[in-house]
Amino acid sequence: MTASTETLHLQHADHQAHSGTHGWRRWLYATNHKDIGTLYLWFSFSMFMLGGTMALGIRAELFQPGLQFWHPEFFNQLTTLHGIIMVFGAIMPAFTGLANWMLPLMIGAPDMAFARMNNWSFWLLPPAAALLVISLFVPGGAAAGGWTLYPPLSIQAGMGMDLAIFAIHLLGLSSIMGSINIVTTVLNMRAPGMTMLKMPMFAWTSLVTAYLLIAVAPVLAGAVTMLLTDRHFGTHFFKAAGGGDPVLFQHIFWFFGHPEVYIMALPAFGIVSQILPTFARKPLFGYVSMVYAVCSIAILSFMVWAHHMFAVGLPATAQLFFMFMTMLIAVPTGVKVFNWIATMWQGEMSFETPMLFAIGFVCLFTVGGFSGLVLSIAPIDIQMTDTYYVVAHFHYVLVAGALFSLFGATYYWLPKWTGHMYNEKLGKLHFWWSMVWFNVTFFPMHFLGLAGMPRRIPDYPLQFTDFNSVASVGAFCFGLGQLLFLYNVISTIRGGVGKAPARPWEGGHTLEWEVASPAPHHTWETPPDEALVKKGLRAQLLDQDHE
Prior knowledge:
- By secondary structure, the chain is mainly alpha-helical.
- It is built from 18 helices and no strands.
- Helix 3 runs antiparallel to helix 4 (72-107), helix 4 packs across helix 10 (246-280) and helix 11 (287-300) runs antiparallel to helix 12.
- It is globular and about 70 Å long.
- Residues 1-7, 10-17 and 543-547 have low confidence and may be disordered.
């Protein structure tokens, strides 16, 4: 450790005492980015467990043909809430929590730009989650039209749909405020010497994701508000009987919905772009091309929404346009996969848990990308729409994609958060267990979809039994494995297997590894010295940091 770094650690240790309020007030009135990041992460994990329990309810019903446990209406409520909770309650808040925790540390900022708004953006989430859970118990039950809330079903539904609409408004408001905070922090609060093209990739992907959210969250708010007025105020936006058009809702929803897919994927790309260079012990291959690829994906994501709608009767010209634009998105995504593989190529790789999850991400996300490419072909998609092939595709993107990257990020930064090292053997067991059972759960769904099994049905013909039984067993085993993760995290918080040094991974060169572990309550109150920033950048770019 150099003398300047040692001095920094002493300065930060001095700030540890000034952690402000304690007890419940520390969390309720939190303005520190680390506390708010922690709140986001625990909230998202709670929602993950809730949404996962609903998924197990779905798979229990589908273990064999016939109705075993749920009435079809309740089954539809489970599928709808599972989707809404996982997307808006688990994945998105988790990435916002990571951005809150890590961005100021990585770019040398003392905190997020708007500390009180940061607090407010988190505390909108628990009431939204409460509305979704309460909706299960109101007359008529929860929303049951699928997480996409298509009319006419969503217009005819009971008051559970109104609760879902209000929940989505709150979740969207939270996302917009969190995104404004991220954009302002990244653009205005970087350390001296850290130009835009020298930021860590995670900062880039968080910035682009925040721009996407600011652009599309109001679109979703508009769509569900129009639904609300159709339901209660006599408008006819989507009611065919009054001159409205149900397909209009799909256009508005998917103009939000496709960028939303990348809102959940881009931060994952950033995380993997931090982890791979660290454990390959060499710089990220093609950094600038990665930045351009992220920006290209974001722009193209606005031009492909109707590939979700090939079956609604689009004109042939529109089908061709959306088909080719969807295929075009594979190009920048392919650039990223190539760069990740090139980063690992001839690196001095070691396979700690974060690296395993990052490699698992690259392999399985690529499978999800290929099945997406298959679905981009209009005549094939018309056959596959609303089958289990689509379910397999987006779970490969969102579970093996977003979720695996979140597990990798947790193991990667846990020593910095807690000051303790996690149990490596348990971490590796969690990875291999998740990897195997994830594929047992979702790979058979490709075959079910190709054979024609529709999604969102509680019962099915006999020929689909075997693959469904395999998928259900896989789902329960996968779910059980996540308790290993929870146990490992809690035991690490309580002391783990030993104290973590400031730089637990020798290949880690970004600024967050220059502060003590655990990260003090206040960091970078004095911006990091330009020489320190340049030292980290030089190590990132030239791999010359062998002190």
